[in-house]
Design goal:
Elements: H1 21-40, H2 95-103, H3 113-118, H4 120-131, E1 139-142, E2 148-151, H5 154-161, H6 175-185, H7 239-249, E3 254-259, E4 265-270, H8 271-287, E5 302-306, H9 312-324, E6 328-332, H10 343-353, E7 357-360, H11 362-367, E8 386-389, E9 413-420, E10 431-437, H12 438-452, E11 459-462, H13 469-481, E12 485-488, H14 491-496, H15 500-508, E13 512-515, H16 517-526, E14 540-543, H17 550-562, E15 572-578, E16 582-586, E17 607-612, E18 617-620, E19 655-662, E20 666-674, H18 681-693, E21 699-703, H19 718-727, E22 734-737, H20 739-742, H21 758-761, E23 762-763, E24 766-767, E25 770-771, E26 774-776, H22 795-805, E27 810-815, E28 821-826, H23 827-843, E29 852-856, H24 861-873, E30 876-880, H25 888-901, E31 904-909, H26 911-917, H27 920-925, E32 934-936, E33 957-964, E34 970-976, H28 977-991, E35 998-1002, H29 1008-1021, E36 1024-1027, H30 1039-1046, E37 1051-1054, H31 1056-1065, H32 1070-1075, E38 1085-1088, H33 1096-1105, E39 1116-1120, E40 1129-1130, E41 1140-1144, H34 1145-1149, E42 1163-1167, E43 1176-1181, E44 1195-1201, E45 1207-1208, H35 1215-1222, ...
Parallel strand pairs: 3-12, 5-6, 5-7, 7-8, 11-12, 11-13, 13-14, 14-15, 20-21, 27-36, 29-30, 29-31, 31-32, 35-36, 35-37, 37-38, 38-39, 51-52
Antiparallel strand pairs: 1-2, 3-4, 9-10, 15-16, 16-17, 17-18, 19-20, 21-22, 23-24, 24-25, 26-43, 27-28, 33-34, 34-45, 39-40, 41-42, 43-44, 44-46, 46-47, 48-49, 50-51, 52-53
Helix pairs in contact: 1-4, 7-8, 8-9, 12-13, 16-17, 22-23, 23-24, 28-29, 31-33, 36-37
Length: 1379
């Protein structure tokens, strides 16, 4: 049809009945088209969905668009992706149509059947396109973002959802009720309405399959079954019955021989002794623990077996004693210390199993750690245990008529084997107990007997741990079933003599040996010292870790060396097993080996041996059955990768390798190597792993020798090592991070959406269906008050008026570090002193009207008097921080630069500072001859001026406000007399300041709101200002709070640096301060003056810390100002409390605001920056297009106010910058109002609270400065977010700052600890930034405390830090350049 691609207009609305033939035809055609398209192509792979920039809100409730949900995956809403589906270009459901329909006020009208049929062909075509995405019947319907959900009856979804834009659902239910039903079906994830709708959560980039990847070949893999388990008539019905048979028939037959550390037989346990002692243990467990009425152990209870590895005989007796007593043994390792590696997890397992009794030997009991009273202490995480010694001398002899009840094997639990979850990264290192039933135990022993061909009286050498796995199955269980003789080689003997197991094979003519590839490797190293070796008696050399790739090379090398010693190739029998499945496969003796794994010549044929425990039978593989081969392709498992000596070219090392999972699916290896050759190992390690295993190494750490945690058998404790690495307690001597080469699945950066034209998005005060984000404080013109200062246009006139009307009223009181009054100023004193300074400027300085004067004073009374002296003389004052006497070389150049940039004709200061400016140290830093004339105000003239200067125009310049921004830029703004008076009036009204009030100010008085509060507000409002220089708090941290308490102050102002100093310095002194009478209950407002995002963590810590001293939490608030307007928000005394919202940090990176619940993943708390000042209007605008934004949308904060600065003061005359910052206009909407651009990103949100005038409160939330934001991977990151994550990463990180350098992210951390901890921070910092922000850190710099520069307002000077880093001036402890 010709109109099939036409965009529907608001007039294209229809009313369709339930039984309309049109709907049936459309439905039939849609189904046929969907089925036809589905046969042609496969379902599209879900791709990352793109954001929409428009949201339909409740103002369009009359319509039912196809997608008004918040990106949830509920079955009640089927979302369409307007950009992600292939049919979007063919006229599918369009969001803009719904918005335009809502704006133009079109309604759903009833039309005739003729009009219905006129658009039918286009409707059917569009509907068919939509239905082409849907599987009909038992189908998958794609949601937004490509996430499907399953529908059992797609037909029920077709009619109400897939209909034309503007067409009501074809049902008798109204659109309002249908919308309510759909809303109730939606999960109540975010119960907030002002939030940006994502199509889906952050999706990872879909990895496309590599076309060069090898394709699977051959037939489909089928389940393999082992050969049938043969039936032997004389097999015992249970393992206890086998023990009873051999203990009574062959009591003298040797069962177990233990060795001492010299390789000599220490003890021979016969089957008779094993039977009698096991009965003795069983009797004592059941009858001698507890009382007859309340025994401690009953049949079925669990009992821990704690025996050392050099005492297998006692452990074997205790194990069979538990089986005879029908209790469940849990063999565990001996805890050597209270904080043994992995001991806490074992304790948790014992507690969950209900273990209350631990069986042990006499020697082990004496070796356990004891308390001063001689009792065994409770180990960390362990339950309370009764330790029971199983030596015969400590046991009671059972009565002659007592015999254990021996039953046939059943499904009762036989024992619990302790294993470790090695392959589950979510619980890596967690201990688990594997329950083995008695029938499974017996069937497994029978299967091993048949597979290995065990016969009676055979000798087997066991080097493995007899408590678990292959060592337990062959050396303790199957050997007793077949009356075999086991030669147990302890680990302590292997450390002394690695050839001991081979010697015992030769000595006892052993037929079978159970070893690990590690034991074979050790034997290779020491075989040169042994000549008389004959292994011809061996018919099976069982390699317990044969499933590991490294065993291939060990078997190869061992066979090559010992083949001349009688070892046959078919003897080597690798096996595959696990605690859960027991023995899965083992190579039979005498069968030809298959070759597998990189051309290895080793025998790697393992054939299925599957124990069917449920049926109680075992089957084995026939001769012609395919073999089960383990290939060296398990890199993601972590410990499968090995570094042998050949790979490292002779460098001896002990690797510990584990995966590090990040970003859902990325497995990264971390080799931790004991080695001192730190220069050789990294390069060789990377070459070996890359060439052999083709996996990336995320982090390579070299630690000092023998510092990694060990297992009881001497191996490296994998999970404990990983835990130390993640905690930052590994203390390596060298670290090399390679995240850039390993991390390849970072989320794909979102593309910025094209902006919508003003005509289609703005109607009245709506933008994209939302209220325009604008708010204002109270109107100054409508406020009725008896402010007498309003009749004066200039502050100089206000001071003269106060000197005449209230001459003795104290305006300023300055406190010293002891809390006593250093000096004070009344109205008349300030007036007279200002007159004398004006005379000095005119007579000694020879200054004219409008000349600039630099005021270089320490915080105090002199600065205030000099400022008003300049106003009296008609000069323009510029306050400048004096140089620090102990740091002239770095602070004096800043003073010199401000004096020069401000074009100061004169410099006023005190006599002490004057000497400092002309000292030798100053001459070494700057050219002192270039100073303008310096006037010393300690020597003032006696006379008064002839007349006091009065400006001709309120718009003339009153003073210049210079400050260095956090980006390192020196900026001076011009403040007119009118703006100054309006500023003071606005603060007076907001804070309700009157002559009877007292305000405590602990701020630096050189710029911004700090200067206004210190110098100007008291003169205008008449209140008394108690001045506390922040530098005095360095010697007395409690000075500010003591002054607030002493003078019963209700309003106080401070900076973040002051608050942080009090929090850290007084944290442990609250009780002593309370004893000194410190009371903060009268404080009504405690305002933090800042030009940044509120620091919620610091303000909350401050509130909680001093809550016991009477400070109310609602009293602490923040203010917000910037260069263009020194104070936009200030909480004040009236109005609602500051609100806090939680936003999605991931959405902020895309300049979106998405409100979430507290505690949600990736949530970021933002606190309101105070109440908007009277006379101030703000609006949120797009910083690029300059268009207004809607409520709860992130944009630049623009301000319109009478106290806006007039512009930048610059000697370069950059008029375009000034016009853009101070005289901006919106691109559409209210294009007449002149706004000033703050350069800060934020958003407005209308709350449910009400202001004092009864209107709903608009809260402003500041996110961060545009100049500081970092553009990385197409997203906007704010440094404070990354820095907060890094500070949380480790307790030794006290401060952090980040910046970018050649597209690399540089993280600088201050270390509060020993320098040995510096290398621990490198992987932690890299990990936390990668996990929480999806960024790869380029450089990590560890520095000492105090290196990161911070200005007087407590803000980090990141650009100064960057310059110092590039100039190599930081003197770092360690610098890591991540590869």
């Amino acid at each position: 049809p010709p109109d099939s691609h036409r965009t529907p207009s608001p007039e294209d609305t229809y009313e369709v009945g339930v039984h309309s033939p049109f709907v049936l035809d459309v439905h039939t055609e849609a189904v046929q088209a969907a089925l036809a398209k589905h046969k042609e192509r496969k379902m599209a792979v879900p791709m990352p969905s793109k954001r929409r920039s428009l949201v339909v809100q409740t103002s369009m409730d009359a319509y039912t668009p196809p997608d008004t949900s918040s990106g949830s995956e509920d079955e009640g809403s089927v979302q369409g992706d307007s950009q992600g589906t292939p049919t979007s270009s063919q006229g599918s459901i369009n969001m803009e149509h719904w918005i335009s329909q809502a704006i133009h006020g079109s309604t759903t009208s009833t039309t005739s059947s003729s009009s219905t049929q006129s658009g039918g062909s286009g409707a059917a075509h569009r509907l068919a396109d939509v239905m082409a995405q849907t599987h009909i019947g038992e189908c998958l319907l794609p949601l937004a973002g490509g996430a499907p959900f399953r529908s059992c009856a797609a037909r029920s979804f077709i009619r109400p959802w897939f209909c034309l834009p503007g067409v009501p659902v074809s049902s008798r239910v109204s659109a309002k009720i249908q919308q309510l039903v759909n809303t109730l079906k939606r999960p109540k994830r975010p119960p907030l309405r002002e939030f940006f709708v994502d199509d889906f959560e952050e999706l990872l980039e879909v990895q496309q399959p590599d076309p060069n990847q090898p394709k699977p070949e051959g037939a489909q893999m089928l389940a393999m079954r082992g050969e049938q388990l043969g039936v032997v008539t004389n097999w015992p019905p249970s393992l206890e019955a086998a023990l009873q048979r051999w203990g009574t028939i062959s009591p003298k037959a040797p069962c177990l021989t233990t060795m001492d550390t010299n390789g000599k037989p220490l003890y021979i346990l016969t089957y008779g002794k094993l039977w009698t002692r096991s009965m003795k243990v069983a009797y004592n467990i059941l009858h001698k623990l507890g009382t007859k009425q309340e025994p401690m152990v009953r049949p079925g209870d669990r009992v821990a077996l704690v025996f050392p590895n050099n005492d297998p005989a006692a452990s074997m007796v205790a194990f069979y004693g538990c089986l005879l007593a029908e209790v469940v043994p849990v063999p565990i390792e001996v805890p050597l210390t209270r904080k043994d590696a992995g001991s806490q997890q074992i304790g948790f397992l014992l507690g969950s199993c209900g273990v209350t009794v631990a069986l042990t030997s006499d020697a082990c009991h004496k070796g356990l750690p004891k308390s001063p009273t001689g009792e065994i202490p409770q180990f960390k995480g362990w339950p309370k245990l009764l330790w029971f010694v199983t030596e015969s001398k400590h046991l009671s002899k059972p009565p002659r008529d007592w015999f254990p009840h021996i039953k046939d094997a059943n499904n009762d639990t036989a024992y619990i084997e302790v294993g470790r979850m090695r392959y589950k990264t979510c619980k890596d290192g967690s201990v688990l107990g594997v329950t083995v039933t008695r029938i499974a135990l017996l069937t497994h022993c029978q299967a091993l007997t048949q597979a290995c061909g065990y016969t009676e009286a055979e000798t087997i050498v066991n080097v493995l741990d007899f408590k678990k796995d292959v060592g337990l199955w062959h050396g303790i269980l199957t050997s007793v079933m077949n009356m075999m003789h086991v030669i147990s080689i302890p680990y302590s003997l292997m450390k002394v003599n690695p050839l001991s197991w081979i010697q015992k094979v030769c000595q006892y003519k052993a037929k079978v040996a159970c070893v690990k590839s590690r034991d074979m490797h050790w034997a290779l190293v020491a075989h040169r010292d042994q000549r008389d070796v004959n292994l011809s008696s061996l018919r099976m050399l069982i390699v317990a870790d044969g499933a590991n790739p490294w065993s291939i090379s060990s078997c190869d090398a061992f066979l090559n060396v010992f083949q001349s010693k009688g070892l046959r190739q078919e003897v080597i029998c690798p096996c595959a097993s696990s605690p859960e499945a027991l023995t899965v496969a083992i190579r039979r003796y005498g069968r030809a080996p298959c070759r597998a794994g990189r051309g290895s010549a080793a025998a790697c044929r393992e054939e299925n041996l599957k124990a069917s425990t449920a049926a109680g039978r075992c089957e084995s593989v026939g001769e012609d059955t395919p073999s089960l081969c383990y290939r060296a392709l398990k890199a993601e498992k972590g410990e499968e990768i090995t570094l042998n000596s050949s790979a490292l070219k002779g460098v001896l090392c002990r690797p510990c390798i584990f995966p590090y999972s990040s970003l859902h699916s990325l497995s990264i290896c971390f080799p931790s190597i004991d080695n001192t050759c730190s220069d050789v190992v990294p390069s060789l390690t990377f070459q070996a792993i890359d060439s052999i295993h083709q996996v990336g190494v995320y982090c390579l750490a070299l630690v000092p020798a023998n510092t990694l945690p060990k297992t009881p058998l001497g191996g490296i404790h994998l999970s404990e090592t990983k835990q130390l690495f993640l905690e930052g307690s590994l203390h390596p001597c060298n670290v090399l991070m390679c995240p850039h080469t390993c991390v390849t699945n970072l989320p794909k950066p979102r593309q910025k959406q094209p902006e919508i034209g003003p005509a289609s998005v703005m109607v009245g005060n709506l933008v994209s269906g939302k209220r325009i984000a604008q708010a204002s404080g109270r109107d100054l013109g409508q406020i009725e008050d008896n402010d007498q200062a309003r009749k004066f246009l200039f502050l100089s006139e206000v001071l003269q008026w106060r000197a005449q009307t209230t001459p003795d009223h104290v305006l300023y009181t300055l406190l010293n570090c002891r809390g006593t009054i250093a000096s004070s100023l009344t109205c008349v004193q300030l007036h007279k002193r200002a007159e004398k300074i004006a005379v000095m400027l005119m007579e000694r300085g020879h200054l004219q009207d409008g000349d600039h004067v630099a005021l270089v004073y320490p915080p105090g009374i002199d600065l205030i008097a000099a400022f008003y002296g300049c106003l009296y003389a008609g000069c323009v004052p510029i306050t400048v921080r004096p140089p620090h006497p102990q740091n002239i070389a770095t602070t004096l150049p800043t003073v010199k630069m401000i004096v020069e940039v401000s074009r100061s004709a004169c410099l006023m200061t005190t006599q002490l500072t004057c000497k400092l400016l002309r000292s030798r140290e100053a001459a070494a830093a700057v050219d002192v001859r270039a100073w303008p004339p310096i006037l010393d105000t300690d020597d003032l003239p006696k006379k008064r001026p002839a007349q006091i200067y009065k400006p001709s125009n309120p718009d003339t310049l009153a003073y210049l406000d210079f400050s260095v921004s956090t980006t390192g830029m020196l900026a001076g703004v011009k403040m007119s007399h009118a703006a100054t008076s309006a500023f003071c009036r606005s603060i007076k009204l907001q804070c309700e300041l009157y002559p009877s009030r007292e305000v405590a100010i602990c701020l630096d008085p050189y710029c911004g709101l700090g200067f206004v509060l210190w110098c100007l507000c008291s003169v205008y409002s008449g209140h008394q200002s108690i001045l506390i220089p922040p530098s005095e708090l360095e010697t007395n941290p409690a000075l500010w709070l003591l002054a607030v308490s002493q003078y019963k102050v209700r309003d106080t102002f401070c900076s973040y640096s002051v608050m942080e100093l009090c929090t850290k310095g007084l944290g442990s002194q609250t009780e002593s301060l309370k004893a000194r009478g410190l009371d903060l209950s009268r404080v009504r407002t405690c305002v933090v003056v800042a030009e940044e995002r509120p620091r919620i963590a610091l303000t909350q810590s401050f509130s909680k810390l001093f809550k016991d001293l009477g400070l109310h939490p609602r009293a602490v608030s923040t203010s917000f100002g910037c260069r263009v307007n020194l104070a936009i928000c200030l909480q004040g005394t009236s109005g609602p409390d500051p609100t806090t919202v939680y936003v999605d940090m991931r959405a902020l990176r895309h300049d979106r605001v998405r409100l979430v619940e507290r505690g949600s993943p990736h949530s970021l708390p933002l606190m309101e920056s105070g109440k908007i000042l009277p006379g101030v209007r703000i609006i949120i605008a797009n910083p690029e297009t300059k268009g207004p934004l809607g409520d709860s949308h992130l944009g630049e904060i623009w301000v319109h106010s009478a106290h806006n600065a007039s512009g930048y003061f610059t000697i370069y005359g950059d008029e375009s910058l000034q016009s853009d910052h101070f005289n901006s206009r919106l691109s559409f909407g209210d294009t007449q109002t002149v706004w000033a651009r703050t350069g800060y990103l934020g958003f407005l949100r209308r709350t449910e609270l009400t202001d004092a005038n009864g209107e709903r409160h608009d809260a402003l939330y500041v996110v961060g400065a545009l100049d500081e934001a970092m553009e990385l991977r197409g997203m906007r990151y704010h440094p404070i977010d990354i820095e907060t994550s890094v500070i949380r990463a480790h307790k030794s990180v006290t401060e952090c700052a980040v910046f970018t350098w050649t597209n690399l992210l540089v993280v600088v951390v201050e270390l509060d600890g020993s320098e040995q901890e510096a290398l621990d921070l490198v992987p932690l910092v890299t990990n936390v930034v990668l996990e929480e922000h999806y960024l790869v850190v380029g450089v990590v710099v560890v520095v000492d405390i105090g290196v990161i520069p911070i200005n007087s307002r407590g803000e980090k000077q990141r650009m100064h830090l960057r310059d110092g880093f590039l100039a190599d001036q930081l003197d770092p402890i360690y610098v890591a350049y991540n590869m």
